[in-house]
# Entry
Amino acid sequence: MRPGHDVQKILIEHSVLSTSISNIVRSAWPQKIFNSRDFTLRDSDVLHAGIGACGQTFGLLGMWGAEGASGDHSNYTFENIALDNWYSLVQMEQESPGIHGFTFRNIWALDQPPLVASSPYRRRVRRDV
# Structure
């Protein structure tokens, strides 16, 4: 596999996004090699989230570091995002070298309780991953 180009300084805001058969943001995928940093998605709505059929949810953020995928992914911010359901939030898997500096702030789902308040481990929930 040949490494891809680094991806950095991406801003998406004030958008209505739909993800019925993929992810809104996909930062790692089997057999892909690249680094990414400084990504922001804010003040947006995510509608029609789907259910993945290949081991990955088709939600807001998908990172599937399988089958030789590698890269360093850092400084991602998601804030003021409305989802149609919590299922569609995130699935992250990346081993080499890793993921760090992920912030999820003011995320909510339509007609559903807040994510943090619904957790039985509220004191253990971190807002920055």
In short: The mean pLDDT is 78. Strands lie at 7-13, 16-18, 25-28, 36-47, 61-64, 71-83, 90-93, 97-109.
